[in-house]
Amino acid sequence: MGDDSEWMKLPVDQKCEHKLWKARLSGYEEALKIFQKIKDEKSPEWSKFLGLIKKLVTDSNAVVQLKGLEAALVYVENAHVAGKTTGEVVSGVVSKVFNQPKAKAKELGIEICLMYIEIEKGEAVQEELLKGLDNKNPKIVVACIETLRKALSEFGSKIILLKPIIKVLPKLFESREKAVRDEAKLIAVEIYRWIRDALRPPLQNINSVQLKELEEEWVKLPTGAPKPSRFLRSQQELEAKLEQQQSAGGDAEGGGDDGDEVPQIDAYELLEAVEILSKLPKDFYDKIEAKKWQERKEALEAVEVLVKNPKLEAGDYADLVKALKKVVGKDTNVMLVALAAKCLTGLAVGLRKKFGQYAGHVVPTILEKFKEKKPQVVQALQEAIDAIFLTTTLQNISEDVLAVMDNKNPTIKQQTSLFIARSFRHCTASTLPKSLLKPFCAALLKHINDSAPEVRDAAFEALGTALKVVGEKAVNPFLADVDKLKLDKIKECSEKVELVHGKKAGLAADKKESKPVPGRTATSGAAGDKDTKDISAPKPGPLKKAPTTKAGGPPKKGKPAAPGGTGSTGTKNKKGPETKEIVEPELSIEVCEEKASAVLPATCIQLLDSSNWKERLACMEEFQKAVELMDRTEMPCQALVRMLAKKPGWKETNFQVMQMKLHIVALIAQKGNFSKTSAQIVLDGLVDKIGDVKCGNNAKEAMTAIAEACMLPWTAEQVMSMAFSQKNPKNQSETLNWLSNAIKEFGFSGLNVKAFISNVKTALAATNPAVRTSAITLLGVMYLYVGPSLRMFFEDEKPALLSQIDAEFEKMQGQSPPAPTRGISKHSISGTDEGEDGDEPDEVGTDVVDLLPRTEISDKITSELVSKISDKNWKIRKEGLDEVAGIINEAKFIQPNIGELPTALKGRLNDSNKILVQQTLNILQQLAVAMGPNIKQHVKNLGIPIITVLGDSKNNVRAAALATVNAWAEQTGMKEWLEGEDLSEELKKENPFLRQELLGWLAEKLPTLRSTPTDLILCVPHLYSCLEDRNGDVRKKAQDALPFFMMHLGYEKMAKATGKLKPTSKDQVLAMLEKAKANMPAKPAASAKASSKPMGGSAPAKFQPSSAPVEDSVSSTVEPKPDPKKAKALGVSSKAKSAQGKKVPSKTSLKEDEDKSGPIFIVVPNGKEQRMKDEKGLKVLKWNFTTPRDEYIEQLKTQMSSCVAKWLQDEMFHSDFQHHNKALAVMVDHLESEKEGVIGCLDLILKWLTLRFFDTNTSVLMKALEYLKLLFTLLSEEEYHLTENEASSFIPYLILKVGEPKDVIRKDVRAILNRMCLVYPASKMFPFIMEGTKSKNSKQRAECLEELGCLVESYGMNVCQPTPGKALKEIAIHIGDRDNAVRNAALNTIVTVYNVHGDQVFKLIGTLSEKDMSMLEERIKRSAKRPSAAPIKQVEEKPPRTQSINSNANMLRKGPAEDMSSKLNQARSMSGHPEAAQMVRREFQLDLDEIENDNGTVRCEMPELVQHKLDDIFEPVLIPEPKIRAVSPHFDDMHSNTASTINFIISQVASGDINTSIQALTQIDEVLRQEDKAEAMSGHIDQFLIATFMQLRLIYNTHMADEKLEKDEIIKLYSCIIGNMISLFQIESLAREASTGVLKDLMHGLITLMLDSRIEDLEEGQQVIRSVNLLVVKVLEKSDQTNILSALLVLLQDSLLATASSPKFSELVMKCLWRMVRLLPDTINSINLDRILLDIHIFMKVFPKEKLKQCKSEFPIRTLKTLLHTLCKLKGPKILDHLTMIDNKNESELEAHLCRMMKHSMDQTGSKSDKETEKGASRIDEKSSKAKVNDFLAEIFKKIGSKENTKEGLAELYEYKKKYSDADIEPFLKNSSQFFQSYVERGLRVIEMEREGKGRIPASTGISPQTEVSCMPAPTSTVSSIGNTNGEEVGPSVYLERLKILRQRCGLDNTKQDERPPLTSLLSKPAVPPVASSTDMLHSKLSQLRESREQHQHSDLDSNQTHSSGSVTTSSSSTANIDDLKKRLERIKSSRK
Asked: Which of 680-686's residues contact partners 24+ apart within 8 Å by CB, and which partners?
């Protein structure tokens, strides 16, 4: 027992692995208990036992194993991680459990397997069980079969894959073991229960006795559809539902539900494919050609036996099919014909879709062979053609079938019609679109009038079938001319078809429509009719509704439809409208006179032919009045126009009479029911008068009216033929002009292009130039509708003419045709519309192409030519190919029938001679263009072989093949290529070249597809194998293609397809799928035509190609798209609409339009990284050239092809610059909406732009620079950082342009360089610009030098690379340049450095020639005399080094405000670049710690000060006696430690642990509550607020949802946070440090918290919400007003944009804004208005007025208006000066709005005088002195704030205060910073002293602002730029005083002062003008002092100046926002007072 006790103490897992069985048994029992206790399936406990489960089931001890199995079952059932163990556990069960003698063990084993299936691991389980079937132990085999049977019985055939089981069944039936055979029988019965007869073919070869037994068992099975009794976890809800149904007795419904499972398995799928080509007799091809029929018969019989195999393996059957076809077509022995037909049937049935590629060859032959009378031959042929039909689509064979319809032989006609009827039965409404139905109906309508009754009957049957399939609505338009008798016959046939449809097409219908109801089909009569319609056309459900809406017609219709009833819908030819027209017989002149006299006054008729023109004129006036009063129904149009035509008729000589006459014709046409008969009477006369100067316009009006009455197509045709049958050129040209306008007004639908073109050609050949010009104009208008293919008709015109035509087309490019305005009223468009819009996309596009006269070349493809092409000698082969190329070239456009050519060319694609392969590819390219869309039918037999060529080892051959494939795809679309298995077969081949090219091609084409190709899934397994290909390129391409496959198939399908991979591969592939899922592009929206839905009213499903399933079509139309794209799509749709139907732009242009709706940049995951790798690895050319060579352009093109939309790329690489402009315009439009795309392709975009820099065209250059400005602004907003690769391939080329002669361009380039510093470190820019100074172009040298100066000025010396010394030496060389501008630029740059760096410059420059040195010294001196120059420039041109904190200063600064924003952005963007920070840490960090430690003393070499250590951070420092302020304790050395401590505490605030967070908050609260310590938080405010709102988010999203957390804890945390915030926002100086972005997020968090309903439910919740309310008010009042206003505006914009955001949220944001508006009168002077107006501008851009008005509430628009109104009221007209940050003001809605407001307020106030007070917009009481006073003071303060007028402002203020001693200037000062206040006070004192003759400032005033500033020279250069005193009037004593203080600060004794030379002598030099900042003044004074001082302290002081300025000028540190820096600097200063 000792042993026992030992293991008893072990933990469970060790017990389970113990060698003693008892220990294991005990361990397993304990484990079982543990498993039963764990309630949460996701508990981490489960994972601990993962390794044990296999041991549990495979234990060697039977007793222990049983317990183990029980435990394992519980584990698998409950643990979420159990799935990971599937493979090993099931294989353990199979090998170690199924062989156990105990039945219990086997049961548990089976149960475990089933449980694994339930937790979604069915495939893995099935795999292991099938492996078990190969086990030698029959027990195991039996158990495996039993498990499979149980699984199938319980889970059903959807979960358990039957194919692999059925595959092994025959083998199991042959087993020696009876038990195995019996079990096999049971599973066979179970399988039969699920798939019925589909099981028979695979089992046909088993033992007949067994088969008989099976049959007996099968008969006993119940007939109902089986239902699964157990469900997967994911389906368990379904199970519950089913139970409810059964309990409610709803069993039948359940049956209906799963009805679709029956046809789910197709017997064909379960069969093994048999390879028969190799089994053909060796001499087959000889025998089949043999003379003796017996030999031919033997050969055919051999084939017949082989093709009896129900499933054949895919292969190249072309030769076999060709041989059989020859027998069918040419053999004289009818028996052999029947036999060959049977063989073809067998092939078609065995190959299914794979036979499709041969269908086109065989169909015409079989149809023509129907001339045979023998029934068995006819039957064999019928069977063959029916079987072949199922392998292809009606679309593909339609051409061949229609061609045979015109055959003279009645039996052929009859059999063809019958074949069509049978084919129709297999169609549905969606696979039988109108485009296809129309030609068939036209042909069949001829047959119903045939003399042979059998032909008529067959045609009736076919039309009846069509009627049944697509419904009357669709067919009726084609039957418009059929008389009633025949129509009834067709309908009768349609009703008979019913039963046939039910029987024969049942299966087809089943397959296509998921659930037909078989029971219903038998009913007949009307109900039956309705039912079958439901069955055959569930897809176009929406279509049925569409026509009903049409009956009402579009609202434009106005007038009733022309009498003639409903008229026909959708006829494209003229028949439709004509049937609807009033067909009026021609009346004799007598009848006309009689009718006319009834309605016209008698005098009128008598005077018609009077010889006096006045009488005729009077008669016309009466005539007109009579017509105007006549009622439409009573107007005898024909009679009236005949009267008008009566002598003198159209030969009328008086123009007034003639004008009236023409006007009356127009009136009659408009008002009456005007028929074509009437029109023919007058048209001739009208055409004759159209060229008349005086009457021409009236003639045109009359013609337009007639066109409206009789339809334009007919009128135009008449008019054109009349015009060109006479000689008058004026008439001809005017007719053409009229027609151009008419087309624009009426649209293009129904026009006969062919007829026009012949007339236009005549006109182009005319001698009169006016006629030619009119013809060209007409062509231009036609081009709008027809597109580029129109040019094809005129290619043989003279070059001069052709160039004119091209110019006209060029003008029209990019324009969309206008919407038709006429021709709508009488004959509603819906007539044509429905017929047109619903057409299949292909049909519409090919329409114009169809008009091209196509040549039949099949007769030229002789057998000699074919044999030549396949000759052994390559030269003869080449001759043959040359001939073919010649034939195609000559024919230009050819018919699809090209005889034996495809097979011949296919042979050449694998020619050993590569030159011939390339030639063949070129021919195939030609062929695609020549044949147009009809090339479709050759995709399978010729297109796929081209893809094979993509695997060629030669690069150029592959490129040619790719070009050819693209040319084909352009004509055919992608559907044909992706149907069937051909493409997946290609991808299967393990050829790396083929794989990478094919995947690349698919990645390019798939994104453009709008519907999912059905067979795309077949490529997925091969795609996965490519992901693991040995070749890196293949893997890369496969990864690139992955997202596009997923876009169509969806993640689920793709993930499911990984099931068949090995486990290791599967994990890798799944990881890649996850990655691809993130990058999956959105599916392109439904095609352009779908977006024209509102016009045509036709439903979206119509537009989907037939392969698209319904859900798909809906999703693709519904999918929302960003606005710009929407606009685009609509643009296209209007084109489609105006083209009404058929005459839509030609195929190519239509494609373009469709495609333009998608994104222009496709995000390719890791695309950019890969390109960089390629460039690094020298796989591609490095982007480095003096002028771009072709290979660079080609390379860029290929790189772009994968990530730029095809149509855009065509524009970008077009030879014509206008296309580049278009491309740039599109890129600008999409910049905002496609940020990711732009950044993903940035390297390519920049490279493309460098190419544009080499263009000579200025407009492109300007546009490119415009785009670049926007681009870099966007990049800096996105905080993007340029990579080295992007920079080096772009900056050098940009710098070339800085030397452009045009000023604007140089300016733009400089602006771009400026913006680039925000996304690329200035220190890295420096070397590029330095390189630019070496250019030969002097302008470029000068500009680059200036730019270098600017960089040094903005970023300090550290930008100089490689070292300042080297850089300056290079710059100094240019002082001696021969060009004056360059010399000046070089000198200025060095002076700039001197200003920053002082005398050290001379050391750095090294030796210069005397002349250069003197120039430099002179320049430096001059700049010292005029220091104003540099600083002004600095403020004006460059962003100031550190932005002024003083908000007044910001507002009143006159420098361009955009600099400020760009600077802000810069600071932000720099902070976002860790890379920059690591590389050049010091360069880009403003080392605040150091400055703050500095206190002006560190750099003075006074060791005792440096060593000075403070004992305790928070102890006040002992203050030296002299009157200098204490160094406030919170900075100094404490800072370095405190900062890190504070950082650490703040980081804990955002902790996930509530207690940690509370502790941190308490510590911070302690600091904030003590005034003397609170300052320590300065500079950490943003960081702290970020941590706080992160914590708020955490509470909101995580803690509140956590059930386990005590809600008291959360309340405690909330109160800590809120308390802290309130403390913080009470300290105004700290509150103002919060930056906009942080405030926005904080407000977001607080408002979300206020709206959190979960808090209200807690007891203290109300209290929390009240506190938050209080806090929000504090935040609004105390934060920096500019920042908080800006934050609220952005927040409002975001909340209105976010669909998820609640209206309540936006409402609260607006309430905050209202509060701010109330505060505005007090805060207006401290706000940076420019920035606020920029935010409002952006807001209005995102929400234009119309969009705001659509909002549910009117609050947003009111809020905005109130805000703007208040600002206007407070600022008056001056507000318009604050729009400086808005780029293009003119387009800004804001500016317009402000102008309106100003105008309004002006109007109200009446007078425009008194500019001084005009600012107060609300001057109701003009005399109100208070308003005046306020305005006057505001004006004064504005002056004080501006640099130029500060002195004047102070003087005015002084005067004012004297005058009104009681005036209160406090409101103006209280919102400004401390610094500004003291500055104003001090300024007033100075003036007072001067005026009252006081000598100097009393000592009590403390330190002057200048001194204060001087401690920290550089950063304050602008802070103090406002605070300048009136330098000129300050006496030397002031400087003495200042110096004294300085000395005190440096610890020097002041008593020695008397020994020094008198200061006055030094300081009496001209005083510094007031503009210079105080630092600069001190700087220059000190440098002068230095000369006369020996004491070295001062030289040190001076160098200290320069050092510190050097260190400070660097840009912001990588963490702090620039706003924070400003605040920290302000703090340092105020702490030193």
From this structure: 680/718, 681/638, 681/641, 681/642, 681/645, 682/641, 682/644, 682/645, 682/706, 683/715, 683/718, 683/719, 683/722, 684/650, 684/722, 685/645, 685/649, 685/650, 686/662, 686/719
Answer whether 1110's CB lies under 8 Å from 540's CB.
no
Residue 1816, both tokens: 């107060």
| Residue pointed to by tokens 């643009």 | 1131
Mean pLDDT to the nearest integer, 613-629? 87
Greater model confidence, 408 or 541: 408
- Collapsing DSSP to helix, strand or coil, 1702 comes out as coil
**At 1157, is the secondary structure helix, strand, or coil?**
coil
**Neighbour count for residue 360 (Cβ, 10 Å):** 22
Residue 558, sorted as left (phi over 0), alpha (psi -120 to 50) or beta, turns out to be: left
Query: What are the backbone dihedrals phi and psi of residue 855, each rounded to the nearest 5 degrees, phi first?
Result: -95, 145
Q: What percent of the chain has pLDDT over 90?
A: 5
- Amino acid occupying residue 1612: K
Q: What is the DSSP string of 1920-1983?
A: GGS----GGG--HHHHHHHHHHHHHHTT--SGGGGGSPPHHHHHTSPPPPTTS-HHHHHHHHHH
219 CB-contact burial (10 Å; exposed 0-12 / middle 13-18 / buried 19+): exposed
Lookup result for tokens 């183990």: 68
Name the strand (E) or helix (H) holding 1491: helix 1488-1494
Residues 6+ apart with CB under 8 A from 957: 914, 917, 918, 921, 949
- Residues 1207, 1212, 1217, 1222, CA torsion sign: positive
Find the mean pLDDT for residues 261-269: 57
- How many other CB atoms are there within 10 angstroms of residue 298's CB atom? 16
Instruction: Give the distance from CA 2025 to its chain's centroid.
Output: 45
> Which of these ranges, 1039-1048, 1081-1090, 1671-1680, has the smallest mean pLDDT?
1081-1090
80 neighbors 46 (Cβ within 8 angstroms): yes
Which pLDDT score is estimated for 1710?
85
The pair phi, psi for residue 951, each rounded to 5°, is -90, 5
Beta bridge partners of 855: 894
Concatenated DSSP letters for 39-60?
Answer: --TT-THHHHTGGGHHHHHS-S
- What angle (nearest 5°) sits at the alpha carbon of residue 627, between those of residues 622 and 630? 125
Q: Percentages helix, strand, coil for the chain, rounded to the nearest 5?
A: 70, 0, 30
What pLDDT, in 10s, does the model give residues 1715-1727? 888 888 888 888 8
- Count the neighbouring beta carbons within 10 Å of the beta carbon of residue 804: 18
* Backbone phi, psi, residue 1782, to 5°: -85, 125
Pick from 1581, 1587, 1614: which is nearest to 1600 by CA? 1614
The structure tokens listed for 1307 are: 């300016």
**Element of type H or E holding 1883:** helix 1874-1891
pLDDT confidence band for 1333 (50 / 70 / 90):
very high
With cut-offs at 50, 70 and 90, classify the pLDDT of residue 964.
very high
Both tokens of 1880, joined, read 């104003």
Q: pLDDT tens digit string along 1598-1657? A: 877 777 777 777 888 888 888 888 888 888 788 888 888 888 888 888 888 888 878 777
Residue in the structure block whose two tokens are 């390219």: 925
| Matching residue, tokens 């029980």 | 70
* CA-closest candidate to residue 1102, choices 432, 514, 515, 471: 432
Interval 29-49: pLDDT, tens: 888 888 888 887 778 878 877
Helix or strand (DSSP H, E) at 1816: none
Angle, CA 209 vertex, CA 205 and CA 215 arms, to 5°: 80
CA atoms within 13 A on the CB side of 1719: 22
Alpha carbons 312 and 30: distance in angstroms, whole number: 58
The helix or strand, by DSSP H or E, that contains position 826, with its residue range, turns out to be none
